[in-house]
Fold this protein.
Amino acid sequence: MDRAERLPQIIRMKGDNIATRLVDFGASVVRLVAALPQDRPGKHIADQLLRSATSGGSNYEEARAPRAGETSCTR
């Protein structure tokens, strides 16, 4: 199956389960960070990577939540 045949499947996948994929990505990065060296540069990189990789899920969920006083999300 070439890319043109997979395109509808790829597009559907992007919107349907992005929250699940963000959690999976965060979990993958946690495993990666655990494998980094425990020296000073490794810890610094691990800290930055962990914070940036896990923030996507919370940002996505916050953006989807309705604002206070709104009955529906119009964004």
Notes: The chain has a mean pLDDT of 81. Residues 22 and 45 are 20 Å apart (CA to CA).
